Amino acid sequence: MLSLYPTGNKKMHGTGHISLYLAMVEIENLPLGWEVNVMFKLFVFDQIRDCYLTVQDADGSIRRFNGMKCEWGFAKFLPLDTFNDESNGYLVNDCCVFGFEVFVHERSGMLQCLSMIKEPANGTLTWKIEKFLTLDQVSYNSQEFTVEGLKWKLMVYPKGYFRAEAKAVSVFLHSCSYLLPEHKFFAEFKLRIRDQFNNNHLERRVKRWFSSIEGEGYGDPRFLPLKDLYDASKGFLVNDTLIVEATILVMSK
């Protein structure tokens, strides 16, 4: 089940945030010394853009639930200012949707083989966003592109994902493919905003497991500080055009 602290778990320094945890219940009848090892994701639904904000441990750590520790999660899941801003889509008409996805790690002694494709064909999308300074929506989507049968798109927040802060351009790569609940795949990718003068591009390299949550995306909410965007010498914004790219470096079959 989910354990939600609407105003933050103060004991874990979550003041000013939504705190969200995955908890095991009805553990009284489990055998002595029980433990369950899982990877999990927590998410909140963006009701305006029909996609999810997904949060998981940065390294995809396996968490051990047992009699001493039956709750794991995030004290700072989402800033309250971001959650309460209706334009972000998380709280609409006083209604919100939280959820979770769990992968149980079984110690079966069996090995699983995972095939990886390095530098897949047609793995780069280049998106030129014109009239960038006049954009007035919270977020914008690129056209979809297909790599090894899976569909992707870029999502950019011109004034930042955490709109209340409005200090950086946010960039995310989203999976657009529908998967069966038991399926997941790995991708290593690079997000880039091009320096159109000096080729000193701003890049982020990301490794993530994607699952059956359609619209699941990863990136950096503080990808490009607005002060650097507006600095003409940096070369990111030229003739009111921003160039954003995504390159799939490695993906599983």
Automatic annotation (TrEMBL):
Pfam families documented for this protein: MATH_2
Transmembrane regions listed in the UniProt entry: none
Classification via SUPFAM superfamilies: TRAF domain-like
All residue ranges annotated as the MATH domain in the record: 1-102, 122-248
Gene3D superfamilies given in the database record: Apoptosis, Tumor Necrosis Factor Receptor Associated Protein 2, Chain A (2.60.210.10)
Superkingdom of the source species: Eukaryota
Name of the protein: MATH domain-containing protein
Record organism: Fagus sylvatica
